[in-house]
Amino acid sequence: MNDPTSPTPDHAATAPALSSDDIDALETLLDDLRTRSEEIPQWEFCDGFLTALVCSRRAIGAAEYLPMLLGDGAAIDVAEGESLPLLEPFADAAQQAQFLALWQRRWNEIEQALDTDVKTLDDERTFEPDVMDMRGAVAALSEAERAELAGQDIPSFAQVWALGFMFAVENWPEEWQPPRDKETAQWLDEALDSIVALTEDDTGTPSVSMYAEDGPPSVSQARVELFGEAIWAVYDLRQLWKSVGPRIETLRKAPEPGRNDPCTCGSGKKFKKCCGA
């Protein structure tokens, strides 16, 4: 599989978008991984994490981000061009390959959407975070089924996705440092604030259901508007880092010794009478 952080120019045209069956396969796969590691997140969290990687200033390789998402966080030492070793949560190489193939397709899908010039959220080409209205799903259950879930903390609409996005931001903070240009820095802050807002609980009065058209109200209108703002924020972040470009690593030159200091060559002479002459 190609490294998702360095796709070919026509990558998005070569891979179809994930279908509902593909998403089901990912969720089933993650459920199986969770039997071997309790820390494996839900797919919605993974989708937010993946989206942040697509928007990141630096192209972060799979050897860095997969251990952060599915393992102990320690980057894998893999030479360029070499395949990843089998990661601990996966049952075998075939299962890992299946996950990576689906992950690649979702990466391509997101990248293509964010690089497409759309004017409204109604455009069918617009980026769509893979989120679920869990409260709507619970509200649609029978009274007995809801009683079994009593006391459990049910996340708000898009909250898990936003947490996944910010998890990536927080783990690579150097790639999200504000640029020196004040206007661009404000642009960055406002975009991230829109996503952070979704990490908070929806405390508004439920008025719509994002789970089913005729479902019980489970999401406030304010939440729906925040979700829309977060989608545009993702577009902004993608374009911001593409316009600013990657960080330039500069080597700091060691300070030159004073003329009366001992010479750095170790001769025992003063600098002014040795290398500084």
UniProtKB/TrEMBL annotation:
Name of the protein this chain belongs to: Zinc chelation protein SecC
InterPro entries given for it? SEC_C_motif, YgfB-like, YgfB-like_sf
In Pfam terms, one family for this protein is UPF0149
Source organism superkingdom: Bacteria
Q: Which lineage do the record's taxonomy fields give for this organism?
A: Bacteria, Pseudomonadati, Pseudomonadota, Betaproteobacteria, Burkholderiales
